[in-house]
Amino acid sequence: MDTAELRTALRNAGLSQYQAEAYVALLQLGAASATELADACAVPTARIYDVLRDLESKGYIETYEQDSLHARACDPKSVMEDLQSRAVQLDEAATEIETRWQQPAVDRHMLSIVKRFETVFNRAEELIRDATSEVQLSVTPEQFAALRPALTEAYENGALVKVSLHPEQGDNLNDIDESAFRGVTSEVRVRTLPTPFVAIVDRTGACFAPHTGSVNQYGVLVDDYTLTYVFYWYFQTALWEVWDVVYTAQTPDPPIVYSDIRHFVQDAEPLFQNGKRIVTHINGYETDNREPIDVVGELTDIYYTAVSEPKETLSFSELAGQVCLTIDAGDETYTVGGWGAVLEEVEANRITVESIS
């Protein structure tokens, strides 16, 4: 390191330009009067006394009187320890900056845009572990394996876990092992096209990242009931409804559990039109005050606005409009809607078919 580089390093360590100039010159001289030191460096004579006092207060030099003010450098041990501690601190700061850049803390904002997939994945894993109602997930087999412990926790908490598997760019999905899904998922479907990473949890949290072959790499984190609904519809229409089921934990006999009113209507409408008596258990919220409510009763009417006449098989998109159930609970009749219901008395979070007769 040459003299100029040493002065620069000292300035980076907290010395002013004049202090660094005077200290380096004094190291070379050993000891000198104030005026001699000013002549030997770029510090003006009018400033040299202030500079020496500042250097002495920092422990770099000591001054003494010998006809005039003189100075000499102190034992550099304390200076070296200070510089080394600063170096360690800067090294730790560099490591911390790298860590925070790679895995920034995620604040609970309504909408956050992040730049690393790891941030999206870690947030999804956190949400899934705490899920109690429903998890909807679009992942590759490798991502599914990494999230399997978290999904198992959600499944054991009683959440419905729906997984849409898709391949990496240029790969194919072969040899689906159903045993990997037991005790972990409620239903699994396979999409043959590369797909973004999507996780929707308990209707309030959503995590999204483009697939690895996308030109733009970023992530979206949502912590909002209404915004999450947008991702929910994307998942249902593009990643779920039209793809083949490769595994389901649901049996054809009651109790049959639904997390979406439209899926319930797809199955219940033909039975209802054929005169079947369907007893349901509705778990949800009162729409006027958001208080939890449980309703058990007979299905007495199904209303939907998308088609004018009942069909034997309804697609999910045909039920995109208002969908409403009427449930006779014996002492009272309730109207029941789906996610975001405002016209009905109850917003259904889960619908369980208790019996069909």
Automatic annotation (TrEMBL):
This is TrmB family transcriptional regulator. PANTHER family: HTH-TYPE TRANSCRIPTIONAL REGULATOR TRMBL2 (PTHR34293:SF1). Residues 80-134 form a coiled coil. Keywords: Coiled coil. InterPro entries: TrmB-like (IPR051797), Tscrpt_reg_TrmB_C (IPR021586), Tscrpt_reg_TrmB_N (IPR002831), WH-like_DNA-bd_sf (IPR036388), WH_DNA-bd_sf (IPR036390). Belongs to the transcriptional regulator TrmB family. Residues 10-75 form the Transcription regulator TrmB N-terminal domain. Gene3D superfamilies: Winged helix-like DNA-binding domain superfamily/Winged helix DNA-binding domain. SUPFAM superfamilies: TrmB C-terminal domain-like, Winged helix' DNA-binding domain. Residues 111-355 form the Transcription regulator TrmB C-terminal domain. It comes from Haloferax profundi.
